């Protein structure tokens, strides 16, 4: 970095040549950092920027090669190094990171309560990120206090502004030509090409984040009765769940249904969502895909922090959520009888939101 600058100059004004970004999370989490990554690239066009993340983020890095130059795998999955059994893998990983001799490491992972120590061990000349509110900072110029009342996209943009970057809150999601061909083929095979359809995404990684499957089926049936074909999306882990959703779902004549769980790349999924009239989904990564491609969405938030993860355009995306005192939930399975934060959202509330967003449809939902 440029040592001639004043000591209080923003870190990016020092023109770091090698920058590490740590975010070992999933698709929706990464999409929420895209505006910050774009701001980082704009402020440091000269730098080599390396994303350190989970194995699946290698293709994410390739997709965003206009913002990211390199990728390193974080080897502990979703765990941070609290367990002594991780020592050998962690030692090898930190050796590989330190060999890169980063000028700046930016912690884009979370509040810093557990991740700041790890990122400090990268051996970068300077480290930046968030620290827990009220916690002392060894470097107040580089760390900001974490705020619980902040949306995820704005949070990371605020950090980048503090470091000397400027940017907007738009999520861009590049799609390759082959992925467009992939989505067109899948839609044609399902009989959805040229049809007006709604995407239904009934999955989420944690059961505590899932709206009841029977209610998704009821919404799908009412949408089909109103003339909309259906596109079911999901990961490979959600194939069985989509199979169950289809069981007992009676479709009127002329209504097509395509099930794409586990069958799409990220880009093809984005194209399928982009061509939909509406997305109905749990509060999971696909909500940010819809935000990126501009498709109206109804997001049913069960257990999660709806304020933190809600898409920014409230005119285009409606988030349905109740606020019991146990929220946000930290459990894999809801420990309370009846999963009250999920079941408080009924089918009619989702259909009412659909009527508002499907104002250009074949006909209104009955």
Summed up:
This protein is α/β, with parallel strands linked by helices and 366 residues long. It is built from 14 helices and twelve strands.
Essential attributes:
alpha/beta, 33% helix, 14% strand, 2 domains, Rossmann fold, globular, disordered C terminus, six-stranded parallel sheet, 366 residues
Could you please describe the fold and organization of this structure?
It is a single chain. About 35% of the residues lie in helices and about 15% in strands. It is an alpha/beta fold and about 375 residues long. It folds into 2 domains: about 10-165, Glycogen Phosphorylase B (Rossmann fold, 3-Layer(aba) Sandwich); about 175-355, 3-Layer(aba) Sandwich (Rossmann fold), CATH 3.40.50.2000. It has a 6-stranded parallel sheet. Strands 9-8-7-10-11-12 form a 6-stranded parallel sheet, with helices on both faces. Helix 8 crosses helix 14. It is globular, with a radius of gyration of 22 Å.
């Amino acid at each position: 970095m440029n040592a001639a600058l004043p000591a209080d100059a923003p870190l990016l004004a020092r023109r770091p040549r090698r920058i590490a970004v740590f975010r070992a999370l999933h698709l929706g989490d990464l999409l929420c950092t895209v505006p910050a990554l774009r701001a980082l690239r704009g402020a440091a066009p000269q730098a080599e920027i390396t994303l350190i993340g989970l194995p699946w983020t290698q293709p994410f890095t390739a997709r965003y090669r206009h913002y990211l130059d390199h990728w390193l795998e974080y080897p502990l999955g979703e765990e941070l190094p609290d367990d002594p059994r991780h020592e050998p893998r962690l030692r090898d990983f930190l050796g590989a990171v330190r060999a890169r001799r980063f000028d700046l490491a930016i912690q884009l992972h979370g509040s810093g309560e557990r991740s700041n120590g790890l990122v400090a061990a990268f051996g970068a000349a300077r480290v930046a990120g968030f620290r827990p509110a009220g916690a002392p900072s060894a470097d107040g110029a580089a760390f900001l206090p974490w705020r619980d009342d902040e949306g995820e996209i704005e949070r990371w943009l605020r950090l980048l502004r503090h470091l000397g970057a400027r940017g907007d809150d738009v999520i861009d999601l590049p799609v390759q030509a082959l992925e467009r061909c992939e989505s067109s083929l899948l839609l044609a095979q399902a009989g959805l090409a040229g049809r007006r359809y709604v995407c239904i995404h009934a999955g989420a990684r944690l059961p505590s984040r899932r709206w009841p499957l029977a209610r998704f089926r009821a919404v799908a049936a009412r949408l089909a009765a109103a003339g909309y074909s259906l596109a079911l999306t999901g990961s490979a882990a959600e194939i069985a769940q989509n199979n169950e959703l289809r069981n007992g779902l009676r479709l009127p004549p002329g209504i097509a249904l395509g099930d794409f769980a586990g069958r799409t790349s990220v880009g093809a999924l984005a194209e399928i969502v982009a061509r939909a009239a509406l997305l109905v989904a749990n509060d999971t990564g696909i909500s940010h895909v819809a935000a990126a491609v501009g498709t109206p969405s109804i997001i049913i938030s069960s257990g999660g922090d709806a304020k933190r993860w809600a898409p920014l355009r409230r005119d285009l995306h409606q988030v349905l959520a109740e606020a019991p005192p146990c929220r946000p939930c930290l459990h894999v399975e809801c420990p309370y009888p009846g999963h009250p934060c999920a079941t408080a959202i009924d089918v009619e509330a989702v259909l009412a939101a659909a009527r508002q967003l499907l104002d250009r449809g074949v006909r209104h939902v009955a």
